[in-house]
Amino acid sequence: MQQLQPKPIGSHGKPTVFVHYELHKCTHVFVRRDSVRRPFQAPYDGPYPVVKPSDKLYKVNIFGKSTSIAID
Question: What is the mean pLDDT of residues 21-41?
Answer without folding.
Answer: 91
